[in-house]
Protein backbone atom coordinates (compact mmCIF):
# COMPACT_ATOMS: atom_id res chain seq x y z
CA UNK A 1 0.00 0.00 0.00
CA UNK A 2 2.80 2.43 0.86
CA UNK A 3 4.46 1.75 -2.51
CA UNK A 4 1.14 2.39 -4.28
CA UNK A 5 0.60 5.64 -2.39
CA UNK A 6 4.12 6.81 -3.22
CA UNK A 7 3.35 6.25 -6.91
CA UNK A 8 0.08 8.14 -6.66
CA UNK A 9 1.56 11.22 -4.97
CA UNK A 10 5.16 11.50 -6.18
CA UNK A 11 5.14 15.30 -6.09
CA UNK A 12 4.74 15.47 -2.32
CA UNK A 13 7.65 13.17 -1.50
CA UNK A 14 10.23 15.77 -2.52
CA UNK A 15 8.47 18.76 -0.97
CA UNK A 16 10.51 20.27 1.79
CA UNK A 17 11.00 23.88 2.91
CA UNK A 18 14.12 25.81 1.95
CA UNK A 19 13.08 29.18 3.40
CA UNK A 20 10.42 30.72 5.59
CA UNK A 21 9.48 33.52 7.92
CA UNK A 22 8.22 34.44 11.37
CA UNK A 23 5.72 37.26 11.75
CA UNK A 24 6.42 38.43 15.30
CA UNK A 25 3.99 39.91 17.87
CA UNK A 26 5.55 43.30 16.95
CA UNK A 27 4.62 42.64 13.32
CA UNK A 28 1.05 41.80 14.32
CA UNK A 29 0.81 45.06 16.27
CA UNK A 30 2.03 46.97 13.20
CA UNK A 31 -0.52 45.26 10.95
CA UNK A 32 -3.25 46.22 13.43
CA UNK A 33 -1.98 49.80 13.53
CA UNK A 34 -2.09 50.26 9.74
CA UNK A 35 -5.41 48.40 9.46
CA UNK A 36 -7.24 50.71 11.87
CA UNK A 37 -8.08 53.47 9.38
CA UNK A 38 -8.88 50.85 6.72
CA UNK A 39 -11.30 49.12 9.12
CA UNK A 40 -12.97 52.45 9.93
CA UNK A 41 -13.44 53.14 6.22
CA UNK A 42 -14.98 49.69 5.61
CA UNK A 43 -17.28 49.93 8.65
CA UNK A 44 -18.36 53.46 7.77
CA UNK A 45 -19.29 52.30 4.28
CA UNK A 46 -21.21 49.29 5.60
CA UNK A 47 -22.93 50.88 8.61
CA UNK A 48 -23.75 54.31 7.21
CA UNK A 49 -25.10 53.00 3.93
CA UNK A 50 -28.74 53.95 3.29
CA UNK A 51 -31.02 51.10 4.42
CA UNK A 52 -32.82 49.05 1.81
CA UNK A 53 -36.32 50.15 0.88
CA UNK A 54 -38.58 49.55 3.86
CA UNK A 55 -42.27 48.76 3.14
CA UNK A 56 -43.31 49.80 6.67
CA UNK A 57 -45.06 53.16 7.05
CA UNK A 58 -42.54 54.45 9.60
CA UNK A 59 -41.56 57.99 8.69
CA UNK A 60 -37.89 58.63 7.84
CA UNK A 61 -37.59 61.18 10.62
CA UNK A 62 -38.27 58.55 13.32
CA UNK A 63 -35.89 55.94 11.91
CA UNK A 64 -32.56 55.51 13.70
CA UNK A 65 -29.63 56.63 11.60
CA UNK A 66 -25.91 56.07 12.13
CA UNK A 67 -24.25 59.43 11.57
CA UNK A 68 -20.68 58.67 12.71
CA UNK A 69 -18.38 55.66 12.93
CA UNK A 70 -15.06 55.87 14.73
CA UNK A 71 -12.74 52.94 15.51
CA UNK A 72 -11.31 53.58 18.97
CA UNK A 73 -9.42 50.29 19.40
CA UNK A 74 -8.05 47.80 16.92
CA UNK A 75 -5.67 45.11 18.13
CA UNK A 76 -4.25 41.78 16.96
CA UNK A 77 -2.75 39.44 19.53
CA UNK A 78 -1.11 36.06 19.18
CA UNK A 79 -2.66 32.92 20.68
CA UNK A 80 0.12 30.25 20.69
CA UNK A 81 -0.85 26.93 19.01
CA UNK A 82 -4.18 28.43 17.87
CA UNK A 83 -4.05 31.65 15.86
CA UNK A 84 -4.79 35.35 16.40
CA UNK A 85 -7.38 37.32 18.32
CA UNK A 86 -8.83 40.46 16.76
CA UNK A 87 -10.37 42.99 19.13
CA UNK A 88 -12.23 46.05 17.79
CA UNK A 89 -14.14 48.78 19.59
CA UNK A 90 -16.20 51.12 17.44
CA UNK A 91 -18.05 54.23 18.64
CA UNK A 92 -21.27 54.86 16.74
CA UNK A 93 -23.17 58.14 16.73
CA UNK A 94 -26.87 57.38 16.26
CA UNK A 95 -29.74 59.81 15.82
CA UNK A 96 -33.43 58.94 15.95
CA UNK A 97 -34.72 62.52 15.83
CA UNK A 98 -33.24 65.92 15.05
CA UNK A 99 -32.64 66.63 18.75
CA UNK A 100 -31.65 63.16 19.98
CA UNK A 101 -28.21 61.68 19.50
CA UNK A 102 -26.95 58.62 21.27
CA UNK A 103 -23.53 57.06 21.27
CA UNK A 104 -23.36 53.30 21.09
CA UNK A 105 -20.29 51.11 21.29
CA UNK A 106 -19.93 48.14 18.96
CA UNK A 107 -17.36 45.64 20.23
CA UNK A 108 -16.13 42.78 18.07
CA UNK A 109 -14.01 39.94 19.40
CA UNK A 110 -12.93 37.46 16.70
CA UNK A 111 -10.54 34.52 16.57
CA UNK A 112 -8.66 34.24 13.26
CA UNK A 113 -6.22 31.78 11.81
CA UNK A 114 -4.63 31.08 8.45
CA UNK A 115 -5.24 27.75 6.78
CA UNK A 116 -4.39 26.22 3.41
CA UNK A 117 -7.30 25.85 1.02
CA UNK A 118 -7.67 23.06 -1.60
CA UNK A 119 -5.91 25.29 -4.19
CA UNK A 120 -2.91 25.33 -1.79
CA UNK A 121 -3.24 29.06 -1.18
CA UNK A 122 -3.17 30.52 2.31
CA UNK A 123 -6.54 31.80 3.48
CA UNK A 124 -7.48 33.90 6.51
CA UNK A 125 -10.56 32.44 8.21
CA UNK A 126 -12.68 33.38 11.21
CA UNK A 127 -13.21 30.60 13.74
CA UNK A 128 -15.22 32.57 16.29
CA UNK A 129 -16.79 36.04 16.40
CA UNK A 130 -18.68 37.75 19.24
CA UNK A 131 -20.17 41.20 18.57
CA UNK A 132 -21.80 43.23 21.36
CA UNK A 133 -23.62 46.56 21.23
CA UNK A 134 -24.15 48.82 24.24
CA UNK A 135 -25.13 52.42 24.94
CA UNK A 136 -22.33 54.76 25.99
CA UNK A 137 -23.90 58.21 26.46
CA UNK A 138 -26.83 60.43 25.52
CA UNK A 139 -27.11 64.11 24.58
CA UNK A 140 -30.65 64.29 25.88
CA UNK A 141 -32.21 62.76 29.04
CA UNK A 142 -34.63 60.04 27.97
CA UNK A 143 -36.91 57.49 29.57
CA UNK A 144 -34.59 54.58 30.47
CA UNK A 145 -37.13 51.85 29.83
CA UNK A 146 -39.06 51.37 26.61
CA UNK A 147 -37.33 54.02 24.43
CA UNK A 148 -33.91 52.58 25.22
CA UNK A 149 -35.02 49.07 24.33
CA UNK A 150 -36.63 50.33 21.18
CA UNK A 151 -33.47 52.16 20.14
CA UNK A 152 -31.27 49.13 20.79
CA UNK A 153 -33.64 46.86 18.91
CA UNK A 154 -33.85 49.18 15.92
CA UNK A 155 -30.09 49.65 15.81
CA UNK A 156 -29.58 45.90 16.01
CA UNK A 157 -31.73 45.58 12.91
CA UNK A 158 -29.70 48.19 11.09
CA UNK A 159 -26.33 46.75 12.10
CA UNK A 160 -26.07 43.36 10.49
CA UNK A 161 -23.71 41.79 13.02
CA UNK A 162 -23.80 38.45 11.22
CA UNK A 163 -22.51 40.11 8.05
CA UNK A 164 -19.80 41.92 10.00
CA UNK A 165 -18.65 38.63 11.53
CA UNK A 166 -18.82 36.88 8.19
CA UNK A 167 -16.53 39.47 6.63
CA UNK A 168 -14.48 40.48 9.67
CA UNK A 169 -11.21 39.49 7.96
CA UNK A 170 -11.84 42.26 5.39
CA UNK A 171 -11.24 44.78 8.16
CA UNK A 172 -7.54 43.83 8.02
CA UNK A 173 -5.16 45.14 5.39
CA UNK A 174 -4.06 41.66 4.37
CA UNK A 175 -7.20 39.93 3.08
CA UNK A 176 -7.00 36.73 1.12
CA UNK A 177 -6.19 38.46 -2.18
CA UNK A 178 -2.99 39.75 -0.61
CA UNK A 179 -2.17 36.41 1.00
CA UNK A 180 -2.42 34.80 -2.44
CA UNK A 181 0.12 37.35 -3.74
CA UNK A 182 2.69 35.67 -1.49
CA UNK A 183 2.84 32.77 -3.96
CA UNK A 184 2.99 34.95 -7.10
CA UNK A 185 5.92 34.35 -9.50
CA UNK A 186 8.57 37.09 -9.45
CA UNK A 187 11.09 37.77 -12.26
CA UNK A 188 14.84 37.39 -11.73
CA UNK A 189 15.97 37.64 -15.35
CA UNK A 190 13.82 37.98 -18.51
CA UNK A 191 13.41 34.20 -18.78
CA UNK A 192 13.83 33.09 -15.15
CA UNK A 193 11.27 33.43 -12.34
CA UNK A 194 11.13 32.53 -8.66
CA UNK A 195 8.04 31.43 -6.74
CA UNK A 196 7.57 30.78 -3.02
CA UNK A 197 4.98 28.12 -2.29
CA UNK A 198 3.57 27.59 1.22
CA UNK A 199 3.86 23.94 2.23
CA UNK A 200 1.29 24.00 5.03
CA UNK A 201 -0.78 26.28 7.21
CA UNK A 202 1.36 28.43 9.52
CA UNK A 203 2.23 27.39 13.06
CA UNK A 204 1.70 29.69 16.04
CA UNK A 205 4.29 29.92 18.80
CA UNK A 206 5.12 32.53 21.43
CA UNK A 207 7.74 33.90 19.02
CA UNK A 208 5.21 34.53 16.26
CA UNK A 209 3.45 33.04 13.25
CA UNK A 210 5.82 30.62 11.50
CA UNK A 211 5.42 29.83 7.81
CA UNK A 212 7.53 27.37 5.81
CA UNK A 213 8.04 27.91 2.09
CA UNK A 214 9.44 25.90 -0.79
CA UNK A 215 11.12 27.79 -3.61
CA UNK A 216 10.54 26.81 -7.22
CA UNK A 217 12.20 28.32 -10.27
CA UNK A 218 10.85 28.56 -13.79
CA UNK A 219 12.99 28.94 -16.89
CA UNK A 220 11.12 29.93 -20.05
CA UNK A 221 7.85 29.10 -18.26
CA UNK A 222 8.85 25.58 -17.21
CA UNK A 223 9.54 24.57 -13.61
CA UNK A 224 13.07 23.16 -13.50
CA UNK A 225 14.23 20.27 -11.32
CA UNK A 226 16.69 21.35 -8.66
CA UNK A 227 19.25 19.56 -6.51
CA UNK A 228 17.63 17.83 -3.53
CA UNK A 229 18.48 19.41 -0.20
CA UNK A 230 20.73 17.05 1.78
CA UNK A 231 19.41 18.42 5.09
CA UNK A 232 15.76 19.32 5.85
CA UNK A 233 15.41 23.00 6.69
CA UNK A 234 13.36 24.35 9.58
CA UNK A 235 12.88 27.97 10.61
CA UNK A 236 15.42 28.90 13.29
CA UNK A 237 13.33 30.46 16.06
CA UNK A 238 14.94 33.32 17.97
CA UNK A 239 15.83 32.55 21.57
CA UNK A 240 14.01 35.68 22.75
CA UNK A 241 11.32 37.95 21.38
CA UNK A 242 12.52 40.04 18.45
CA UNK A 243 11.81 43.77 18.07
CA UNK A 244 11.60 43.25 14.29
CA UNK A 245 8.20 42.81 12.65
CA UNK A 246 9.34 39.91 10.49
CA UNK A 247 12.24 37.45 10.44
CA UNK A 248 12.98 35.79 7.10
CA UNK A 249 15.35 32.84 6.84
CA UNK A 250 16.93 31.30 3.73
CA UNK A 251 18.77 28.00 3.70
CA UNK A 252 22.06 27.27 2.00
CA UNK A 253 20.06 25.10 -0.40
CA UNK A 254 17.94 28.13 -1.41
CA UNK A 255 21.03 29.98 -2.68
CA UNK A 256 22.44 26.88 -4.43
CA UNK A 257 19.03 26.42 -6.13
CA UNK A 258 19.04 30.08 -7.21
CA UNK A 259 22.42 29.79 -8.90
CA UNK A 260 21.42 26.43 -10.42
CA UNK A 261 18.35 28.10 -11.94
CA UNK A 262 20.51 30.91 -13.33
CA UNK A 263 22.83 28.29 -14.78
CA UNK A 264 19.88 26.45 -16.35
CA UNK A 265 18.65 29.70 -17.91
CA UNK A 266 22.09 30.36 -19.44
CA UNK A 267 22.55 33.56 -17.45
CA UNK A 268 25.94 32.46 -16.12
CA UNK A 269 27.39 31.76 -19.56
CA UNK A 270 29.79 34.54 -20.46
CA UNK A 271 31.59 35.77 -23.54
CA UNK A 272 34.76 37.62 -22.53
CA UNK A 273 36.70 39.82 -24.92
CA UNK A 274 40.31 39.78 -23.74
CA UNK A 275 42.84 42.53 -24.26
CA UNK A 276 44.87 40.12 -26.42
CA UNK A 277 44.82 39.61 -30.17
CA UNK A 278 46.13 36.70 -32.21
CA UNK A 279 49.22 38.80 -33.10
CA UNK A 280 50.11 39.59 -29.47
CA UNK A 281 49.38 35.98 -28.53
CA UNK A 282 51.71 34.76 -31.32
CA UNK A 283 54.54 36.67 -29.68
CA UNK A 284 54.23 34.29 -26.71
CA UNK A 285 52.84 31.19 -28.44
CA UNK A 286 54.46 30.82 -31.85
CA UNK A 287 51.88 28.33 -33.15
CA UNK A 288 49.30 31.15 -33.25
CA UNK A 289 51.08 32.77 -36.20
CA UNK A 290 50.42 29.78 -38.42
CA UNK A 291 46.80 29.36 -37.28
CA UNK A 292 45.64 32.91 -38.04
CA UNK A 293 46.87 34.94 -41.01
CA UNK A 294 45.20 38.18 -39.83
CA UNK A 295 45.19 39.90 -36.46
CA UNK A 296 41.94 38.97 -34.67
CA UNK A 297 40.63 39.68 -31.13
CA UNK A 298 40.96 36.79 -28.68
CA UNK A 299 37.65 35.79 -27.05
CA UNK A 300 36.75 33.46 -24.15
CA UNK A 301 33.33 31.84 -24.31
CA UNK A 302 32.60 30.26 -20.94
CA UNK A 303 29.69 27.91 -20.15
CA UNK A 304 28.89 26.10 -16.91
CA UNK A 305 29.94 22.46 -16.93
CA UNK A 306 28.22 21.49 -13.64
CA UNK A 307 25.84 23.08 -11.13
CA UNK A 308 27.12 25.94 -8.98
CA UNK A 309 27.30 25.48 -5.23
CA UNK A 310 26.84 27.97 -2.39
CA UNK A 311 28.43 27.52 1.03
CA UNK A 312 27.30 29.55 4.04
CA UNK A 313 29.57 30.04 7.03
CA UNK A 314 29.44 32.52 9.90
CA UNK A 315 29.49 36.00 8.32
CA UNK A 316 30.54 34.55 4.97
CA UNK A 317 28.79 33.39 1.79
CA UNK A 318 30.77 31.66 -0.97
CA UNK A 319 29.67 30.63 -4.46
CA UNK A 320 31.62 28.01 -6.40
CA UNK A 321 31.29 28.14 -10.19
CA UNK A 322 32.52 25.43 -12.54
CA UNK A 323 33.01 26.71 -16.07
CA UNK A 324 34.52 25.51 -19.32
CA UNK A 325 36.01 28.29 -21.45
CA UNK A 326 36.58 27.96 -25.14
CA UNK A 327 39.45 30.27 -26.12
CA UNK A 328 39.27 31.38 -29.71
CA UNK A 329 39.57 34.22 -32.17
CA UNK A 330 37.12 36.38 -34.04
CA UNK A 331 34.00 38.09 -32.70
CA UNK A 332 31.61 37.34 -35.59
CA UNK A 333 33.02 33.99 -36.75
CA UNK A 334 34.41 32.37 -33.60
CA UNK A 335 37.23 29.86 -34.11
CA UNK A 336 38.13 27.96 -30.93
CA UNK A 337 41.71 26.78 -30.55
CA UNK A 338 41.83 25.77 -26.87
CA UNK A 339 39.47 24.51 -24.14
CA UNK A 340 40.14 25.43 -20.49
CA UNK A 341 38.30 24.48 -17.30
CA UNK A 342 37.82 27.44 -14.97
CA UNK A 343 36.83 26.90 -11.31
CA UNK A 344 35.93 30.13 -9.53
CA UNK A 345 35.38 30.60 -5.79
CA UNK A 346 33.84 34.00 -5.08
CA UNK A 347 32.63 35.74 -1.96
CA UNK A 348 29.07 37.05 -2.04
CA UNK A 349 27.66 40.23 -0.55
CA UNK A 350 23.99 40.19 0.50
CA UNK A 351 21.76 43.19 1.15
CA UNK A 352 18.04 44.00 0.93
CA UNK A 353 16.36 46.91 -0.85
CA UNK A 354 12.56 47.18 -0.59
CA UNK A 355 11.48 43.55 -1.07
CA UNK A 356 14.50 42.39 -3.08
CA UNK A 357 17.72 40.75 -1.99
CA UNK A 358 20.68 42.20 -3.84
CA UNK A 359 23.33 39.50 -4.32
CA UNK A 360 26.67 40.54 -5.71
CA UNK A 361 30.17 39.13 -6.02
CA UNK A 362 32.24 41.08 -3.54
CA UNK A 363 35.58 39.42 -4.31
CA UNK A 364 37.06 36.40 -6.06
CA UNK A 365 38.90 34.31 -3.53
CA UNK A 366 40.31 31.64 -5.83
CA UNK A 367 40.54 30.74 -9.53
CA UNK A 368 41.87 27.49 -10.91
CA UNK A 369 42.60 27.00 -14.61
CA UNK A 370 43.15 23.53 -16.02
CA UNK A 371 43.38 22.46 -19.63
CA UNK A 372 40.39 20.44 -20.73
CA UNK A 373 42.70 18.52 -23.08
CA UNK A 374 45.98 17.03 -21.94
CA UNK A 375 47.93 17.42 -25.17
CA UNK A 376 49.42 20.77 -24.11
CA UNK A 377 52.39 20.93 -21.78
CA UNK A 378 52.67 22.62 -18.37
CA UNK A 379 54.59 25.59 -19.82
CA UNK A 380 51.64 26.54 -22.03
CA UNK A 381 49.25 25.99 -19.12
CA UNK A 382 51.22 28.44 -16.98
CA UNK A 383 51.33 30.90 -19.86
CA UNK A 384 47.58 30.70 -20.39
CA UNK A 385 47.02 31.35 -16.70
CA UNK A 386 49.25 34.42 -16.90
CA UNK A 387 47.49 35.72 -20.01
CA UNK A 388 43.83 35.06 -19.17
CA UNK A 389 43.58 35.12 -15.40
CA UNK A 390 43.23 38.93 -15.15
CA UNK A 391 40.39 38.92 -17.69
CA UNK A 392 38.54 36.10 -15.91
CA UNK A 393 39.09 37.67 -12.48
CA UNK A 394 37.55 40.92 -13.67
CA UNK A 395 34.84 39.81 -16.07
CA UNK A 396 33.23 36.80 -14.31
CA UNK A 397 32.14 38.84 -11.24
CA UNK A 398 31.01 41.66 -13.51
CA UNK A 399 28.78 39.25 -15.48
CA UNK A 400 27.19 37.79 -12.33
CA UNK A 401 26.59 41.28 -10.95
CA UNK A 402 24.96 42.34 -14.21
CA UNK A 403 22.64 39.33 -14.03
CA UNK A 404 21.67 39.92 -10.40
CA UNK A 405 21.71 43.73 -10.28
CA UNK A 406 17.89 43.94 -10.15
CA UNK A 407 17.89 41.68 -7.11
CA UNK A 408 15.85 38.60 -6.22
CA UNK A 409 12.37 39.26 -4.88
CA UNK A 410 11.85 37.96 -1.36
CA UNK A 411 8.55 36.44 -0.23
CA UNK A 412 6.17 39.31 0.56
CA UNK A 413 2.53 40.30 0.32
CA UNK A 414 1.32 43.10 -1.93
CA UNK A 415 1.43 46.72 -0.68
CA UNK A 416 4.07 46.08 1.99
CA UNK A 417 7.81 46.62 1.77
CA UNK A 418 10.74 45.94 4.14
CA UNK A 419 12.70 48.50 6.15
CA UNK A 420 15.34 48.47 8.92
CA UNK A 421 16.81 45.30 7.44
CA UNK A 422 19.73 43.53 9.08
CA UNK A 423 21.07 40.65 6.97
CA UNK A 424 23.21 38.15 8.91
CA UNK A 425 24.93 35.10 7.48
CA UNK A 426 25.16 32.00 9.68
CA UNK A 427 26.38 28.49 9.03
CA UNK A 428 23.83 26.87 6.70
CA UNK A 429 21.33 29.77 6.61
CA UNK A 430 20.85 33.53 6.21
CA UNK A 431 18.66 35.47 8.63
CA UNK A 432 16.88 38.68 7.53
CA UNK A 433 15.14 40.50 10.41
CA UNK A 434 13.20 43.51 9.12
CA UNK A 435 10.26 45.79 9.73
CA UNK A 436 7.14 46.07 7.60
CA UNK A 437 6.10 49.30 6.00
CA UNK A 438 2.85 49.96 4.19
CA UNK A 439 3.64 51.48 0.81
CA UNK A 440 2.19 54.91 0.11
CA UNK A 441 -0.68 54.85 -2.36
CA UNK A 442 0.08 56.23 -5.81
CA UNK A 443 -2.19 57.54 -8.49
Overview of this structure, please?
The chain is α+β, with helices and mostly antiparallel strands and 443 residues long. The protein folds into two domains: 24-48 and 64-137 and 161-180, no CATH class; 183-426, Bactericidal permeability-increasing protein, domain 2. It is built from ten helices and 20 strands. Strands 1, 6, 7, 8, 9, 10, 11, 18, 19 and 20 form a ten-stranded antiparallel beta sheet that branches. The two termini are 58 Å apart. Mean pLDDT is 83; it is low at 1-13, 57-61 and 141-151. Residues 240-434 form the Lipid-binding serum glycoprotein C-terminal domain. Pfam families: LBP_BPI_CETP_C. Residues 44-64 are annotated as: Disordered. One of its GO terms (molecular function) is lipid binding.
Please give a quick description of this structure.
The protein has 443 residues and is α+β, with helices and mostly antiparallel strands. The chain has helices spanning 2-8, 10-13, 25-47, 146-158, 161-166, 176-181, 252-264, 278-284, 287-291, 378-404; strands at residues 19-23, 65-79, 83-97, 100-116, 122-138, 186-189, 192-198, 203-205, 208-219, 222-223, 246-251, 270-277, 297-313, 316-329, 335-353, 356-371, 408-409, 416-419, 424-426, 429-438.
Keywords:
6-stranded antiparallel β-sheet; 2 domains; 443 residues; alpha+beta; Bactericidal permeability-increasing protein, domain 2
Radius of gyration: 32 Å
CATH topology of the largest domain: Bactericidal permeability-increasing protein, domain 2
- Tell me the strand percentage band: 35-45%
Number of strands: 20
Please give the alpha-carbon distance between the first and last residues.
58 Å
Q: What is the string of helix and strand elements? A: HHEHEEEEHHHEEEEEEHEHHEEEEHEEEE
Number of domains: 2
CATH uppermost class of the largest domain: Alpha Beta
Classification by helices and strands: alpha+beta
State mean pLDDT (0 to 100 scale): 83
The CATH superfamily of the largest domain is Bactericidal permeability-increasing protein, domain 2
Helix content: 25-40%
List the uncertain runs: 1-13, 57-61, 141-151
